[in-house]
Amino acid sequence: MKKLLFTLIALVCSQALIAQSHMRIHLKSGDQVDIPVADIDSVTFVESGEVPSEEAELKGSWLWGDADAGYYELLTFNDDNTYTCYDNYFTYGFDTNTYGWYMQYGEILNLLSGGFGYNRRNTWYVTGLTAHKLDIMTRMGQFNYYKLQEETITIQLGKSVQWNEGDGMVFADGVVVVAEGNVLRGQTQGVTYIQIRDGQTNEIFAYKVIVEQAFNGQK
């Protein structure tokens, strides 16, 4: 009933706005707020305190990492149903790349890859998907991947960056970068990936990190 009432109100407002240049909102405090009609795209009624959540989608890059296991994996799902998988075995000093196609049917995620002499298919069960976290169940157990953020962190060799008080490092390879609490230090020139837990939201975010040589004249 509430949704129907809101819909009727929205329809009445839209008809009234057609011949007007501004929409005036009267607040209980006695104040008025005028909003230009040309600036209004849509009107949405929400419960008090309700905040729209970010859309969860599989597309994009997701990072899993385990310092004890000695490697991390970066999965990238593309719009055309192709995917890439980059595995870096930093403990042993080598990496691998896999290319293939993926198909999702509800909670079932199939990863298909092939090449000269082999044809591989992995079937995963998606147990959870949010804007920042992908939980999957495989034959080898359950794994948590975290969405790679657009921001890239650049650190000069031997220098450090520090996050906010309460933030903590969840994963760092210990080879290219070394984590000490909420401080990350560039140890070896190269590219790597990390996971950081936000101290306020408790969410985990993944970032790409580039460690580069210091510029000439800098120590």
Features:
219 residues, mainly beta, eight-stranded antiparallel beta barrel, three-stranded antiparallel beta sheet, 1 helix, disordered N terminus
State the gist of this model.
With 219 residues, this protein is mainly beta. The protein is built from 1 helix and 16 strands. The chain is globular and about 50 Å long.
Walk me through the topology:
Layout: H1 2-17, E1 22-26, E2 32-36, E3 60-66, E4 71-77, E5 82-89, E6 94-105, E7 108-115, E8 118-129, E9 133-138, E10 141-156, E11 160-162, E12 168-171, E13 177-180, E14 183-186, E15 190-197, E16 204-212
Parallel strand pairs: 10-16
Antiparallel strand pairs: 1-2, 3-4, 3-10, 4-5, 5-6, 6-7, 7-8, 8-9, 9-10, 11-14, 12-15, 13-14, 15-16
Taking pLDDT < 50 over at least 5 consecutive residues as the criterion, the unreliable ranges are: 1-14, 44-53
Strand arrangement, major sheet: 3-4-5-6-7-8-9-10
How many DSSP E strands? 16
The share of residues in helices is: under 10%
Summarize the main sheet: 8 strands, antiparallel, barrel
Roughly how many Å apart are the termini?
A: 68 Å
Morphology call: globular
The total count of helices amounts to 1
Rg: 24 Å
H/E element sequence = HEEEEEEEEEEEEEEEE
Note the beta-strand portion.
over 45%
Secondary-structure-based class equals mainly beta
Mean pLDDT: 82
